[in-house]
Specification:
Blueprint: E1 5-9, H1 18-28, E2 35-39, H2 42-51, E3 57-61, H3 78-83, E4 88-91, H4 94-99, H5 104-116, E5 120-125, H6 129-133, H7 137-148, E6 158-162, H8 176-201, E7 203-207, H9 212-219, E8 226-229, H10 236-248
Parallel strand pairs: 1-2, 1-8, 2-3, 3-4, 4-5, 5-6, 6-7, 7-8
Helix pairs in contact: 1-10, 5-7, 7-8, 9-10
Residues 9, 163, 168-169, 207-210, 228-232 line the site of 2-phosphoglycolic acid (PGA).
Amino acid sequence: MRRKLAAGNWKMNGLAPAMNEADALQAAHRNTDIDILLCPPATLLHRLSGRLAGSPIATGGQDCHPAESGAHTGDISAAMLVDAGATHVILGHSERREDHGESSEDVRAKARIAIEAGLTAVICVGESETQRDAANTLDIIAGQLAGSIPDIANASNLVIAYEPIWAIGTGKVPTLDQIGEVHDFIRARLERRFGEGVGLSTRILYGGSVKPDNATDIFEVSNVDGALVGGASLKAVDFSLIIKALEAAGKH
Ligand code: PGA
């Protein structure tokens, strides 16, 4: 019922030669029954979107400003992302929440304007290691979900990514039970807020040190509809193996 999604987040990585990785990925995935998304740095977005036109690989931004346009030096609007060929935008990534002090209210305002511009908002939530140690994980996730998701969200313009901060770029991964607990909890919260229809059809991705060698296990966890992949999305060979693991998930 929910179409799976493999999303790559290149973060602040990628110069012109990164196009070769995109070409290799495209060559390896001309046909697929899942959704594939690449979110390059803004400087590559237009080029990458053009290069991937006609392929099943969509492109997205990594952030947008909550205003439509105006005097915001250095910022990028949702409409600019659309203009550059994006169909998605990652919002509220923990690196933005930390490096730029973004609150859940900020994320909600960004998500609202992104959705109004026609983008799908990939909203990230996740606890720190201290919060997990203090057994606060579900409270933190509940607060971030309630604060970050705008009322206009629905299953076709919203994707949630659960990314425990301590698992991002560290090689540390939660146990499958821990992932399942949070994903089930997010599903229940979405159903409670938006009703069963939207709640059951909104995709929930796991992110944080997803690699070719752990992807298969993670994709078998209940309510994991795909992955948001950082480091391993930079190399086509690695991301491709993760995509194949997702294609195979639930088929045996
Ligand atoms: P990682 O990053 O796969 O390098 O841990 C994931 C993310 O931050 O989206």
